[in-house]
Amino acid sequence: MSNIEGFILSNKFRKAVFLEISSGENSLERIAKKHHLLPQMVKKVAQEMVDKGIIEEKDGEFRFTEEGEKIFAKLKGSNAI
To answer: Are 26 and 55 in contact, with CB atoms under 8 Å apart?
Structure first.
C-alpha cells in the first residue's frame, strides 16, 4: 500500500469522503449530512485531499482528479474499500 492509499484509509472521515466522491456525490454538505459529520470536518478532509491532488473542486463541486481515479481503481482492485 502506498503512502497516499494509507493516507485515505487510515482516517474514517477521509475514507467516507473518498467513497462518497467515488460514488458520484460532489456536495460536501450532503456528505456531511449523510454521515452525520460536522461540515467543517468534511471541508477540512476535502481540503487535505485537494492538497494531495486526489480530488479537485470546480464550481463548488468536488470530483476525482486523474490521480484520484487511479487510486480508487487500485484500492477497489485490492478489495481495500
So the answer is: no
Are the CB atoms for 49 and 18 separated by under 8 Å?
Answer: yes
Predicted TM-score (pTM) of the model is: 0.93
Q: How does the average pLDDT of the chain come out, rounded?
A: 96
> Backbone phi, then psi, for 22, in 5-degree steps?
-65, -30
What's the grid cell of residue 33?
Answer: 449530512
**CATH number of 3-77: 1.10.10.10, 1.10.3470.10, 3.40.50.300, 1.10.3720.10?**
1.10.10.10
Alpha-carbon gap, residue 3 to 59, rounded angstroms: 29
pLDDT, average across residues 25-52: 98
What are the grid coordinates assigned to 1, written together? 500500500
Compute the distance between CA of residue 27 and CA of residue 4 in angstroms, rounded to an integer.
23
